[in-house]
Amino acid sequence: MNDLVIMKSQKALTTSLKVAEVFSKNHRDVMRSIKNLTAQNCAVGKMFVESTYVNRQGHEQPMYYMNRDGFTLLAMGFTGRDAMRFKLEYIEAFNQMDELIRNESGLPQTPEEQLQLTMVVTNRLVKRVGKVEARVEHIEKTSELSEVQRYQLLQARKKRVIEAVGGAGSNYYKETKARKVFNAFGKDFKKEFQIPRYDSLEKQYFEKAMEFTRNWYPDFVLQREIQNSNAQTSLKI
After folding, report:
1. Is residue 237 part of a domain?
2. Closest Cα partner for 6 from 114, 109, 122, 117?
3. Is residue 138 domain-shared with residue 152, that is, in the same domain?
């Protein structure tokens, strides 16, 4: 997340590569979106400048530089909670870059002065963005499970309980006693993670919760009850 915005030619800019990285998108798709935007209106072309970069294989590949307006126009189509957060971080980075450039005593004239100002601005931004990243990471870790994670956990719980009672074809399951095992699992789960209900589990414990679920067994008394029930055979007359 470092260097969201850079200074180039005394302007605050970002690149299609950085946008693709931050928003977890394929760079090829970001490039296509930019080309579509510039094709729709000639005025948009001023917001983007074609350039190139060298990839890990040492091949020169196309990319775009864009100013604040170009980024805003491009990012308008990005949706979701994370997308909104990243947009706000970009806006803040653009604002900070503009402010720092304005507050410097005179614009740099020589390449050496430009490089020095770029290093100063970048270092300040890295520190500020680093603080933002730390706050975002903390919020992400302590936030509750997503809907997808809740579903995965509930499915894992259902599978484990059915396994514990001997399968859906077992006597215990057919006698509709599985609810007792579900309740036992829920009690153990809440005790393990010290939570009052399932949906209050934090994201950072999701993998640990899945592992707990896969390895859970009923207590000895309940296991004996299940075994005794499944050992019975119905009397055919």
Report:
1. no
2. 122
3. no
**Segments forming the whole domain that contains residue 48:** 6-142
CB neighbours (10 Å) of residue 162? 17
Residue with token string 């775009």? 64
* Site of tokens 């963005």: 129
d(CA 181, CA 42): 66
> Which of the listed residues 142, 163, 198 is the one where a domain comes to its end?
142
Task: Convert the pLDDT of each residue in 183-221 to its tens digit.
Answer: 999 999 999 988 888 778 888 888 999 999 999 999 999
- The burial class, CB within 10 Å (0-12 / 13-18 / 19+), for 83 is middle
Q: Using DSSP, how many helices (H) and how many strands (E) does the chain show? A: 10, 4
Between CA 199 and CA 169 the distance in angstroms is 30
Q: What share of the chain is helix, strand, coil (3-state, %, to 5)?
A: 65, 10, 25
Q: Is residue 201 part of a domain?
A: yes
Domain boundary among 89, 110, 142: 142
Same domain, 113 and 155: no
